[in-house]
Amino acid sequence: MPQRVYATKTDYDKYAEEAWTEDYALLSKRLRSASIEIEKLSRSAIYDVDDDGYPTDADTTEVLAEATCAIVEHWQLTDDPYGVDAAAGAVKIGSVSLGTTSSASDTLSAREKLERRIGSRAVDILTNAGLIGSAVAHT
């Protein structure tokens, strides 16, 4: 089964604060990647689906689209669609340290680490809709 994609360019235009200014082929790829994140996070959520695995409830469909767009928008703002910077922690050159210290990064909760990678707005959207795993939502 091909990867489900929960949002379209039209959804991005509807939900994002800033308009997409790059190639729309890139937006399609980012929406697909963000949909992978959505599936990973909502794996234990219970809702009715059609034969292709998409939600049948319009509200759930809208929540997944909005959260998918929020992830893409976060990646645009942070210029970190792969989560490399979110996972890297501090960068130290001589006595100068950029970013968080590695000890501070180690103490982040699962939710804080997730918010660094996909943004707090997407986490909040999924949490408010009851679609995110409780281990992440309450840490």
Number of structural domains:
1
Helix-strand category: mainly alpha
**Series of H and E elements:** HHHHEEHHHH
Overall geometry comes to globular
Strand content: under 5%
Query: Which regions have little confidence, pLDDT < 50, spanning 5+ residues?
Result: none
Q: What proportion of the residues is helical, as a percent range?
A: 55-70%
* CA-CA gap between termini: 33 Å
* Continuous helix count: 8
Q: Numbering strands along the chain, what is their spatial order in the largest sheet?
A: 1-2
The biggest sheet, with number of strands, parallel, antiparallel or mixed sense and barrel status, is:
2 strands, antiparallel
Oligomer: single chain
| Tally of DSSP β-strands | 2
Written account of the structure:
This protein has 139 residues and is mainly α. It has one domain. Helices cover 56% and strands 4% of the residues. It has eight helices and two strands; from the N terminus they run H-H-H-H-E-E-H-H-H-H. It has helices at residues 9-15, 24-41, 58-78, 84-88, 102-106, 110-118, 120-128, 134-137, and strands at residues 91-93, 96-98. Strands 1-2 form a two-stranded antiparallel ribbon. The longest helix is centred in the middle third of the chain and has 21 residues, at 58-78. The radius of gyration is 16 Å and the shape is globular. The relative contact order is 0.17. The model has no long low-confidence stretch (mean pLDDT 86).
